[in-house]
Amino acid sequence: MRVNEIFYSLQGEGRFTGTPVVFLRLSGCNLKCSFCDTKHEEAVEMHPTEIIEEIQKYPSKHIVITGGEPSLQIDWDFVNYLQQYGYFVQVETNGVKRLPTNVDWITCSPKYKPICYGEVDEIKCVYEGKESEEKIHKLYRSVRAESFYLQPCDVKNPKRNAEILAECINFIKENPEWKLSLQTQKILEVR
Ligand code: SF4
Questions:
Q1: In terms of DSSP bridges, do strands 62-66 and 44-45 run parallel, antiparallel, or are they unpaired?
Q2: Candidates 94, 107, 124: which one to mutate for ligand 1, based on the most atoms within 8 Å of Cβ?
Q3: Alpha carbon distance 38, 30 (integer Å)
Q4: Average confidence (pLDDT) over 112-138
Q5: Does residue 184 carry a pLDDT above 90?
Q6: Most buried of 5, 47, 107, 136 (most Cβ within 10 A)?
Q7: Given pLDDT bands bounded at 50, 70 and 90, which one contains residue 187?
């Protein structure tokens, strides 16, 4: 398995915000988003036994597999292996390719490609400005989820970021099926 990094922190986004979790970030993705934070070229090959050994150094039994795109690498046996050690397995996916059916919690963060799911646990959608609102409405109509989160896009420009946040808040006030999700790990400057 090509691993970008393993680290322990608080989940900064979505339903489990504030929960201590072990992050397993895998390398490689099937999309190329302009705002991607992952350095996909950095990877270490790790066997599942080495991954278990590493994640057990931390007290939390909640693991978040993120990317890159986890659906390119994880399978039913790997998820089951983690669950046998008592882990609650949350996976963050762009939704283009299906995940193993035994994942405990699917956080789908669709990008500019259609997703292959009719139902997930939570949707976390990047709000890029008013031009993305039609796409967001369509997404809401096409998939079921327990919670729908909008996350203002960080375009690395403080002035534009402030405008995007204000537009996002207005959109949510007019469309209360959505909730705001901030990248609290960036705001608090924690990993
Ligand atoms: S889907 Fe996610 S990991 Fe893949 S390129 Fe886009 S932001 Fe990066």
A1: unpaired
A2: 94
A3: 13
A4: 93
A5: no
A6: 107
A7: low
Task: Identify the pLDDT of residue 60.
Answer: 98
How many residues are listed for the chain in this entry?
191
Q: CB under 6 Å to ligand 1: residues?
A: 29, 31-33, 36, 38, 67-69, 94, 111
Cβ-based neighbours of 111, under 8 Å, separated by 6 or more: 31, 33, 94, 126
Residue 119 bridge partners (DSSP): 144
Q: How far apart are CA 6 and CA 25, in angstroms?
A: 6
> Where on the phi/psi map is residue 76: left (φ > 0), alpha (ψ -120 to 50), or beta?
alpha
Q: pLDDT (tens digit, 9 = 90+) per residue, 137-159?
A: 999 999 999 999 999 998 889 99
Render 81-131 in DSSP notation, one character per residue: HHHHTT-EEEEEE-SSSPPPTT-SEEEE---SS--S-SB-SEEEEEE-SGG
| For the CA of 35, the nearest atom of ligand 1 | 7
Report the predicted TM-score, pTM, of the whole model to 2 decimal places.
0.92
Distance from the CA of 30 to the center of ligand 1, in angstroms?
8
Range with lowest mean pLDDT among 40-49, 73-82, 92-101 = 40-49
Distance 53 CA to ligand 1 centre (A): 27
Q: 188 pLDDT exceeds 70? A: no
